[in-house]
Design goal:
By secondary structure, this protein is an alpha+beta fold. Helices cover 38% and strands 19% of the residues. The longest helix is centred in the middle third of the chain and has 15 residues, at 70-84. The structure holds zinc ion. Zinc ion is lined by residues 42, 44-45, 47, 68-69, 71-72.
Length: 179
């Protein structure tokens, strides 16, 4: 008699990115050329990679970075973004730019820094910009924390609150759109 048991392991995705890592063929050749093993299937769905498939590098908790196919990477990215979309911030270099971001945030249904009036957001932006300019810092940070807009002089406070920094404005706007 043969008893067969399967163990299920679960790995949490810690980070996923939009950009493909490499074509599978490139990845395979570079690993083979230095005698390393090659992951030949998607770590999530076991799809067998072909040489011209894009492969995506995903960071997982409890194991090494693994390759995903496009479909699984899209799912991972989507979940990952959902988790963070209410706690993100980006950079602004002027009052105009910060206000453009601020108006976009409020147009998506978030509250202002104090209440629903935009006036306080503009005041906070001006205050942060002028405080920073005294230290020769030419930018501030604007984002959302839960349901509310947030303005900050430095990244430190925002990071302490668990907010994620999104450098590219297009990506920041896209994440907010899903609210
Ligand atoms: Zn897959």
């Amino acid at each position: 008699m043969i008893v067969e048991k399967k163990t299920i392991r679960r790995y949490e995705v810690l980070n996923a990115v939009e950009k493909p890592f490499l074509k599978f063929g490139q990845f395979r050749k570079s690993r083979e050329s230095i005698g390393l093993s090659v992951q030949r299937c998607c770590f999530n769905c076991n799809h067998k990679f072909k040489d011209d498939d894009d492969v995506y590098l995903v960071m997982l908790k409890g194991t090494l970075n693994k390759l995903f196919c496009k479909e699984c990477n899209d799912k991972a990215l989507n979940d990952f973004n959902k988790e963070y979309m209410n706690n993100i911030f980006t950079i602004a270099y002027s009052r105009e730019e910060a206000n453009e971001i601020g108006h976009f945030i409020m147009s998506k249904g978030y509250e202002g820094v104090q209440n629903d009036s935009y006036r306080y957001c503009d005041e906070e932006i001006l205050f942060a910009l002028s405080a920073n300019s005294k230290h020769n810092i030419d930018h501030i940070y604007v984002g959302v924390c839960g349901c509310q807009m947030i303005v900050a002089k430095t990244k430190r406070l925002l990071r302490r609150k668990g907010l994620k920094y999104i450098e590219k404005k297009r990506v920041f706007y896209n994440l907010l759109k899903q609210y």
